[in-house]
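dumping this here before i forget
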Amino acid sequence: MAKRKLQKFAELDTFPNVIQPKFNFIEKDFELKGHWNKNFFKNSKPLVLELGCGKGEYTLGLAKKNSEKNFIGIDIKGARIWRGGKTAIDEKITNVGFLRIQIEWIEKYFAENEVDEIWITFPDPQPKKEKKRLTSPIFLEKYRKFLKPNAIIHLKTDHLLLFDYTIETIEKFKHNLLYQTHDLYNSDCVDDILSIQTHYEQLFRNEGYSINYLSFQLNEKNK
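structure:
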């Protein structure tokens, strides 16, 4: 198992659709910051991020259904990123890439007004570490640095604590809540995009858990 994992890590360096930065990000920004479309995707399509993408199932699903957008799945786990990158290569999905980084440093990788949309699908709810939740005020202010005005942030989760926490955060900081439901698949908003399911989402549903979904926009606070 360990040998196979090492092989995957070595193979990652050969994948044209996977970026594994090797630089001192504390002192400088990443070289693709502000140039993802021009230098990586080589087009000018809208750029969408999935944070904590795991094996990239949702990122890949989004890319398949939205050929007019570019997608980047972000995660720190190399074996998971390998699976996403390999699938994209095998299936010739060209509007998707993967970035292996700690999300805590995400503002070092994307420039002001560079990103059109964010998806957060079944993240670690961090029940004891509020500051590490991907919808905490700390992270939302990081996203503000590179999101376009009126960009939409989506959250799908089976975890009620995280979902309710996010709604409370939206209300407290006067962000614009667009939609919320505690039962996505029995709601009036489910569509081809929201119906994309990861392996874990299917497991949650099979175990009887309802899927929570919301979308919102950041307030108009000056950057």
